[in-house]
Amino acid sequence: MKSRTTKIVAAAFAASVVLGTATACTTETAEADTAKSSFISKSVLEAGQANPVIAQGVAIGGDTAIYKTSGIGPSAGNKTAPEGTPESYIDSQFSGGVLPAGVSTTEAQGINVLKKIRDNLEAQGLTLEDVVTMRVFLDNAPGSDKADYAGWNRAYRQFFANTNLDTGDTELVPMGTAAPIAPIERNSARPTRFALEVAGLPVAGWLVEVEVDAVYPEGKEPA
């Protein structure tokens, strides 16, 4: 029979082994959590393209803070057009609602919407660079039988995917049929994106509605 002293020593040794194991596990878990939290997001781009329009996908870290906007449409800033018409939602940069050659109403509304998204993000401490995913809903303009994807894409390029990934240079982009010039906002981000034609949008006159997901970069947190 073991003595009482031997039993106490054995129990103490067992407890120290358990404690040591628990401490090691805790340390390993903390290290794993630290490594996990250091990853924010990464866009997956098609190889061989210096200026792709969108990403093929995006990987987002498990501890990344994500901000999602609601669906955002254009503001009615053109008072020269009847209320509730597509023309009434032309961006204010087009004075009097007069569009330059080749600029479509969808393009002008798209510029309006993306400026509003920029303002929405900036109010949360984010920028267009932080956008990782975009969902676009397009209605066809009166008199047309399909949505104006080309006009939307021109508006999109004014704010996204307008840098050369190989050289870092700004890519010139067209507005309507004009010669390409510097974009409204230089931005290297290539979010994932879908654009879908719908039978109608919730506000009369809207041709474009967009919602985005953005990630907080390292060192920033939601307010």
In short:
Helices cover 27% and strands 15% of the residues.
Structure report:
Helices cover 27% and strands 15% of the residues. By secondary structure, the protein is α+β, with helices and mostly antiparallel strands. β4, α3 and β5 form a beta-alpha-beta unit. α2 runs parallel beside α3. The longest helix is centred in the N-terminal third of the chain and has 34 residues.
Core attributes:
single chain, 223 residues, alpha+beta, four-stranded mixed β-sheet, two-stranded antiparallel ribbon, globular
What layout of secondary structure does this protein have?
Blueprint: H1 4-37, E1 41-44, E2 57-60, E3 66-68, H2 105-122, E4 131-138, H3 149-157, E5 192-197, E6 208-215
Parallel strand pairs: 4-5
Antiparallel strand pairs: 1-2, 3-6, 4-6
Give the helix level as a range of percent: 25-40%
Radius of gyration: 26 Å
What order do the helices and strands follow? HEEEHEHEE
Mean pLDDT: 88
Number of helices: 3
Structural class: alpha+beta
* Number of beta-strand segments: 6
Question: How would you sum up the major sheet?
Answer: 4 strands, mixed
